[in-house]
Amino acid sequence: MPQFNYNKYFKTSVIIISVFLLLAAFFNYIVDPYNLMGNNKTGIYFCDERQAKDAILKYAHQAVIIGSSKTGYINPDDLSCYRFYNASLRATVPEEIFFYLKKYLRDEKLVLIGFDFYMFNERQFPFVNITDWDDVTYSVAEYLLGANILKLSWKTVEKWYKGEVSHCMKENGQFIYPGDAQKSLSDDPRQYEKQYNDILKGLVKHHYDKISFSDRRMDYVRKIKELLEEKNIPYAVFINPKNSDVLVALRQLEAYELFVKWQKEMKTIFPNIYDFSSSKYSAREGFYRGDPYHYNNATGKAFLNEIIKDYCYDESTRQNVFLELVK
Amino acid sequence: MLFNSHVFILVFLPIALMGFFLIGRSGRYPWAIAWLVVVSLVFYGWWNPVCLIIIIGSILFNYYWGIVVSRGSKALLAIGVMVNLGLLGYFKYANFFADNMLFLTGFQFNLAPIVLPLAISFFTFQQISYLVDVYHGKSLEQNFLNYCLFVTFFPRLIQGPIVYHREMMPQFVQKEIFHFNPQTVSVGMTTFFFGLFKKVIIADNLARYATPVFDAAAHQYVLSFLEAWEGALAYTLQIYFDFSGYSDMAIGLAYLFGIRIPLNFHSPYKSLNIIDFWRRWHISLSRFLREYLYIPLGGNRKGETRRFINIMITMLLGGLWHGASWTFVLWGGLHGVFLVINHLWLKLKKRFGYRGQGGWAMRLLSGAITFVAVTVAWVFFRADSATTAFNIIKSMTGLNGFALPEKYLIKFSPLATQLEQWGVSFRHMHFFQGSNEVVYIAVALLIVWFAPNVQQMMGSYVPYLNIMAKEKELPKPSRWLTWKPSYFWAAVCVICALVSILFLSRASEFIYFQF
Asked: pTM to 2 decimals?
């Protein structure tokens, strides 16, 4: 093998490294898979709402709904009284909600926050060590020089070339439900029941088996309350409806005791909390067919409007105008 | 600023290097030194500029105190050492002291919130060694700028290696270092990128298996046998690749400027006993503790019992140096006990006239015992509390049962009944899936046990100061693994650099960053 001299070694290495990095940065900049640089022309095929939901700053809104993917699938345009932005983040946890609200809340007229018991399981959802929402989002260098972004840029180009449809989120922040699980389930009722129960079993195991309950997350719940009260923004906190089948499974587990304790603690922090965990919205029909965890848009719309009606005031008269608006 | 950040690699380092060589080319060497001091302070202050006040204050005190101590007063030396230890004690141990006082006596100290200045343990120890050396007439720096550089030189400022004034500063007298030298720059750059690869690609990926296990244990999750071993082994490997990767980067960076700093690691997991382990792990700290603590305590000169007491004191304080927590003290104490046992074993062997190294089976057994002992000790180092550590150890010993992942039930179906009779259950495990993590840990183990280390690969150029006991030379690897300027090695360097830079993530601090 031919020998280099040191000069050639150094220059060749530095030049190749620089050229490759510049090409990677250029490719990511042009494709811009999350459209963070405003250059995306292919369509956004990959959703990382933690990167994309700074769109709240550009979206004209009066109120915000935030929570996990459960609330993420609700179309905020179906909610009454105010123009909502859906700021929900998949698999979010209270510390993320706190830092997101801290960074992006301005003078909203209402903030709706959805919590779930599983969010407090640090075993399944490790604590997110951040001190600011900027710790979650990409810096320009990370975005342009990230290997994962490079992969997404490449896949974006592929999908665009094949003419695939994007399953991402709408301008108002609503996730587009991919519906994959629904499609793969059998039409045969017995077959379907078995598949449904398998999905249920897997989800319950992941979310509720051997819970490491996070007290520090409860501290963040209190911080969220303090933040909203400090900013003087009206807010309502709710616990998402649980599918009755999930409730049955949960009652069999050790975690159930913790769940009840958690509900009580939430009630202590937020005396006016809306607890829909076991409610008229828990029927299986109110959830996606192949997904016992996510209620559908109709369910979300119904129970959220039930909350909103308590907060729908005419600013000048301070009269509740919910019914008039619904008419 | 972190070595593994875009701003350091793509902005800070090129500017620091270009500035140094451009000024050096004009022959204004003191200006080049001043440039290095300024960029080092920028590097240090990047995280929290307020900490600059502390490091500058410490430099000013020690520089002038060095001049005072050079007159030969032991009392003044003692005052100097006490001031340094006081500074370290206040910033690092005040809260620890207050918490323990509260626990023991119920008396509560009201301390203002204390921000631990970055690298305080390293620059304090470095300056203590300087004062002692000045007292013994081994060093004295008359030039304030040079002294500033001795303390702040950025390649080794944050996590060491701990370098002595007498071994680093004479190198800045050589005029050649101020001129661009393609050889040192090529060797330095390659060493840096190899270290970066170890950190970003190997250590950070191992952390994905270690961190959740320790976090879960901290939340009273009862680990199964395999989960506990997965966490302990992943952390044992993570801390090695993390810290030795950092040390390689530091050596590479210093060598870019033509400066050699001490070798800090020499494949410690290849050790066949604990004494050997401490000759290969964090060598510069071991040397400091030996020369400035163990030997002044009397070393092995005052009888066997006193020797063992000195070992225990040194290791307990060495543990405490790593952090203000009882887990670090336990870690140090455990290593102290291991060392005492090792010395007693050697004594026993000597008494029975056995001098041999043993055959391969004996060596394998020694290596295995040493590795397991070190792994168990790391559990204390990593765990958030002694209770968590003991729970993990309990699982590692099998006292919390032995389970295999559910999916193995099909694979082991003929043996399943028998295994279950022996107490092996098949169940869902949250942290041990029996797939990627096994491969990852196995590959990393093969590397640490059988591959040459980065400094061996760069060995022909010796970009480090050899501070190994008796200046023992590193064994040379086979020819194809010895770096030289060639197409092959340029390709390896480019791949390491590109992969590492593309996988940099901001959340990944070095483990020793906090010390």
From this structure: 0.86
